Amino acid sequence: MTDSAILIKSHCQLGENPLWHGRSQCLYWTDIEAGMIHRLHPQTGRHEVIYQGISVGGFTFQADGDLLLFRVNDLALLHPDGRVSVLRNYFDKGLVRFNDVIADPEGRVFAGSIGTENDSGGLYRVDLDGSITCLWRDTGCSNGMGFTPDLKIFYWTCSTTRRIFRYTYDRETGRLASPTLFHQTGEEEGIPDGLAVDGLGNVWSARWNGYGVTRHDPSGKIMEKIDLPAAKVTSLCFGGENLDRMFITTAGGREGSETIDGAVFEIGVSHSGLPEFESRIHL
User: Fold this and answer.
1) Is 127 assigned a catalytic role?
2) What is the pLDDT of residues 201-221, one digit of tens each?
3) 248: domain CATH number?
4) pTM of the prediction?
């Protein structure tokens, strides 16, 4: 590691889903509880709230320039001019709202959810035509996901059971199969939350109530922990011109508070990350 710093003291109640947009060199993230999406130009320090409305659990960049928002009971498009249009409504038994999401290389989206009970959350796949398939339930709180550099393995986080799993991934069909346990966190590690994979195949996991981010080798072994002064570390992404910066969101902030809870942190890393895929969902 080279350095670390508070990028912006944004006081997010529940900062999540940081995403780096390479073409604009901007960082985006959502404050789920506040119903906001933030955008920051790190080079100039310009900070904007580009959306305020229904809570957004996660979002992807669409290939056509829109943002695809996964809200409480719908998928919506945030257009570059600020307009919001509902793409489709979606209701499922026990669904409180969508949570972490990730686009795959074909433009599909895997979307997790928060359930009313520990046995009602799940993971869904949204195909290019907007159809939604529930892949599994009984997860409570579905969280961070990622792909290995060779696109053969898919990682998925179950925060409820403190486990990260790995699945075989079929790029042609989007099928996930053969789940195996990648890592089981202990009480002292905090709860596994958001996740990202670097160019060497190492898995980085944010830790809710864990005061940091852990780096795992491809076998699941912890290689290092990056300590942060905020307890509720929610998610992370790679960014910067060379994808050698890590941006980390946290939760627990209150406007006017003197604490750093809810801030976004920036860390320099020695190994570059992988670019995020864009979604291509259209009805």
Assistant:
1) no
2) 999 999 999 999 999 999 999
3) 2.120.10.30
4) 0.96
